[in-house]
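Intended use. Records like the one below are meant for learning the mapping from a protein sequence to its folded structure. Do not use them to infer anything beyond what is encoded.
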Amino acid sequence: MRAGNLDRIIEIQRRTTGLDLYGSVIDTWTTFATMRAQLLKNSTDDREGARGHTTDALLTFRMYYFAALSLNDRLLYEGQSYNVTGITEIGRRVGMDVTCERVGS
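Structure written out for the chain above:
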């Protein structure tokens, strides 16, 4: 993996809980890491399902290995949120391919 290919900036966010103005517990997303990545694949998938016709945006990023990343996290890329749906390790903790799907698609 060449550092020159990592031309995109992504933020890794994790769900945290907090309190709103009225003292109620709410879930929020907090950025805990900002990384450089390479966009390998950008695809859309049109399909008919229980919700009707939907268009899903799927992205695959390649980045350096980051042990703290899990499927419960999400990525923020170009102002849009993406749920992490798959993580594939490259080599022995050299890098990883992260597949994600757009939130709210």
